[in-house]
């Protein structure tokens, strides 16, 4: 999904800063986008490393200009074959009866801590300019339980609540904050099957009707 978002903004003429902890994969993506005529730069960083993530965003702004849109959507790497059932425990997920503080903390660090760090790095310039957007995406455990993924739901529900509150706080300043809940893991050109999870109908795949869906008018 990150590749698709980068391509969409890049095709519209915006320079794109790519951040991921996998430097080799990131470089390959930047090269692929550059081959399409898109200005893309790679800034390797782990979202759970606050100093590293802030530094990557600062470097991107220094090289490419003020960050006008932040798209934040880190997630465990799911199987790359469409239809393959993942081993949820191997990916760090836990069912409700087995959820512990230790199993929740990595999800908090990745989904919530990284989002707070990234927002803190880009919001001052957005608020000063009176223009900007932040988009956060998660799975549907933010909205309803999925068997085997309860520890993730705790973090995702918290991120959703914060993003909605941030949208309300910043709407009058011209900064938009959006949240999107996607019902299935995206792998390549298909989807990954989660055991016990119901696939949302197409109208609900992109989120919820009560989420902010359009930037405020300036």
In a nutshell, what does this entry contain?
With 218 residues, the chain is of the alpha/beta class.
Question: What does it look like?
Answer:
With 218 residues, the chain is α/β, with parallel strands linked by helices. The chain has five helices and seven strands, in the order H-E-H-E-H-E-H-E-H-E-E-E. The longest helix has 29 residues, at 101-129. The chain starts with a helix and ends in a 27-residue tail after the last strand.
Secondary structure elements and their pairing?
Layout: H1 2-11, E1 16-18, H2 23-35, E2 40-42, H3 50-64, E3 69-72, H4 101-129, E4 132-139, H5 150-170, E5 175-182, E6 186-187, E7 190-191
Parallel strand pairs: 1-2, 3-4, 4-5
Antiparallel strand pairs: 6-7
Helical percent range? 40-55%
Percent strand equals 5-15%
Counting DSSP E segments of at least 2 residues, the number of strands comes to: 7
Largest sheet: 3 strands, parallel
Q: In what order do the strands lie side by side in the largest sheet? A: 3-4-5
Unreliable parts: 189-218
Overall, the morphology is globular
Element-level helix/strand string: HEHEHEHEHEEE
Mean pLDDT: 84
The rounded distance between the terminal residues' Cα atoms is 29 Å
Taking all Cα atoms into account, the compactness measure Rg is 17 Å
Based on secondary structure, the structural category is alpha/beta
What are its keywords?
single chain; 218 residues; alpha/beta; three-stranded parallel β-sheet; disordered C terminus
């Amino acid at each position: 999904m990150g590749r698709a978002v980068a391509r969409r903004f890049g095709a519209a003429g915006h320079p794109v800063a790519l951040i991921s902890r996998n430097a080799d994969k990131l470089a390959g993506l930047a090269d692929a986008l550059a081959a399409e005529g898109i200005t893309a730069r790679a800034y390797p960083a782990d979202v759970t490393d606050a100093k590293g993530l802030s530094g990557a965003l600062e470097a991107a702004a220094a090289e490419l200009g003020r960050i006008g849109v932040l798209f934040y959507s880190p997630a465990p790497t799911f199987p790359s074959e469409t239809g393959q059932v993942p081993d949820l425990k191997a990916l760090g997920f836990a069912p409700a009866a087995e959820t512990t503080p230790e199993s929740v903390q990595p999800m908090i660090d990745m989904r919530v801590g990284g989002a707070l760090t990234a927002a803190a790095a880009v919001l001052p310039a957005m608020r000063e300019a009176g223009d900007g957007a932040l988009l956060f995406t998660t799975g549907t455990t933010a909205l309803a339980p999925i068997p085997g993924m309860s520890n993730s739901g705790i973090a995702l529900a918290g991120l959703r609540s914060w993003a909605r509150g941030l949208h309300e706080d910043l709407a009058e300043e011209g900064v938009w904050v959006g949240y999107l809940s996607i019902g299935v893991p995206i792998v390549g050109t298909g989807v990954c099957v989660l055991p016990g999870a119901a696939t949302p109908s197409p109208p609900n795949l992109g989120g919820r009707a009560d989420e902010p869906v359009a930037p405020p008018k300036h």
